[in-house]
Amino acid sequence: MRGILMAGTCSDAGKSLLSAGLCRALARRGVRVAPFKAQNMSNNSMVCADGSEIGRAQFLQAQAAGVEAESAMNPVLLKPGSDRSSHVVLRGRPAGVLRAGEYTTGRAHLAEVAFAAHAELAARFDVVVCEGAGSPAEINLRNGDYTNMGLARAVDIPVALVADIDRGGALASLYGTWGLLDAADRALLDSYVINKFRGDANILEPGLQEITRRTGMRHAGTVGWLQDVWFDGEDALEVGRWRTGHTREDSLTVAVVRFPRISNTTDVDALAAEPGVHVVVTTDPDTCAAADLLVLPGTRATLHDLAWLHERGISQVVARRAVEKRPVLGICGGHQMLGEQITDGVELTGSPPTAGLGLLPHRVTFEEEKTLARPQGSWEGVEVSGYEIHHGRVDVTGGEPFPGGVRVGEVFGTLWHGALEGDVFRRRFLTHVATATGSRWLPDLDAPGYGARREDMLERLADAMESTDLVTALTGHSG
């Protein structure tokens, strides 16, 4: 089998997770495998080695497959800029805006690019593990679909439906999905997978037999509930899942502001993974004031979320923390807000400059050209690396250098996403925060690092799929 499409009966059924597990399990068997998602809608993205931007899920699936991530693995990335429009990233580069009314009618050229990218991967790899988007039963979108059954029909690959039984109604969702598709699409529904199962499998068996009898789809296997295994959501900010579960008296508290247009939410995952660090995502000014560290994360709409920051009263909290020398960290859009002035020459052409929070000595100008880079640097003798994804040009006029930005007192700003994933830098920065706030927190140097924990999760996910022989059932490649 040259490929398979992992489709879900609903969003968040486990398509990304199982696709990653399948990539890792196949790679362990010596199969050359690549991930693929024709279209991803997410503000969580990464920069590949070639400077292209793709969805974070596909970047991590490439890691699972043991191959270098590239733009062909996620040829179309839609980054929501508002409730009715998305910025289009095509083969890793900015390519205009898609309006809500164009979603079913204005995507023919996107489909062509997606199909060509899949052909590139299929020519170079033994198996391409494709991930669908949403549900193939969204028949209102079928005419313009190139991510679910439209892709399966175009490249002639079988489809496996993933159903999340923990939500309830899994059997009904499987049968309903099959029932809503036309005959040609149904013909490609090869199998189904039950995900997040807990309990006695014998109780489930009669229902599975009936689904197979009515639809003709094979039951490829059932994946049990995996307590400490997950995958980065496309937009969700659920840092609680990273917590180590160890309680310590010398804890450090981190408050992350939940902007309305928050993006690259995975930046703070590594903080939550650190033993003794308690991370809370909040819109409450009092919580922001009380934390040892306040983080202003990335945002897809800097000026919109800066205005919101003023409305919520959090901007006053930030200013007060600067005076009191209580640490504040701004990342990308959050960093831009901390400066003196922001001029938007992209979405608000001709509008006057907007005053920033005035806590860092820099001015920001948004330009059409987008910066995509994977920079490296150092801080206090520690190597630091990250990735940049932004339109804003930041002109710094003073302050103390900080990786990807600048520091004044206890206010830090950086344009680098992902810098906190580096274990040594993260622990050095948090140690500085603890010293500045009088906390007794110290890093647990024996605790596994962020990258090690992610690798462990990928391995255990692959093990779970191997234990039910899902890999062979889905792809035909035996161990």
Give the SSE map:
Layout: E1 3-8, H1 15-28, E2 33-36, E3 39-41, E4 45-47, E5 53-55, H2 56-65, E6 76-82, E7 85-90, E8 93-99, H3 108-124, E9 127-131, H4 149-155, E10 159-164, H5 170-180, H6 183-186, E11 189-197, H7 201-215, E12 218-224, E13 252-257, E14 262-263, H8 269-272, E15 277-282, H9 285-290, E16 293-296, E17 298-299, H10 302-312, H11 314-324, E18 328-331, H12 333-337, E19 341-344, E20 354-355, E21 362-373, E22 376-379, E23 382-385, E24 388-396, E25 400-402, E26 405-408, E27 411-414, H13 423-437, H14 450-467, H15 470-475
Parallel strand pairs: 1-9, 1-10, 2-9, 3-6, 10-11, 11-12, 13-15, 13-16, 16-18, 18-27, 19-21
Antiparallel strand pairs: 4-5, 6-7, 7-8, 14-17, 19-20, 21-24, 22-23, 25-26, 26-27
Helix pairs in contact: 1-2, 1-14, 5-7
Please supply descriptive tags for the structure shown above:
alpha/beta, Rossmann fold, 7-stranded mixed beta sheet, 6-stranded parallel beta sheet, 15 helices, 28% strand, cobalamin biosynthesis, catalytic activity, GATase_3, Cobyric acid synthase, CobQ/CobB/MinD/ParA_Nub-bd_dom
Describe this entry's structure for a reader.
This protein is of the alpha/beta class and 479 residues long. It has two domains: 3-231 and 454-475, 3-Layer(aba) Sandwich (Rossmann fold); 245-446, Rossmann fold (3-Layer(aba) Sandwich), CATH 3.40.50. The chain has 15 helices and 27 strands. The strands form seven sheets. The protein has a seven-stranded mixed sheet. It is globular and about 70 Å long.
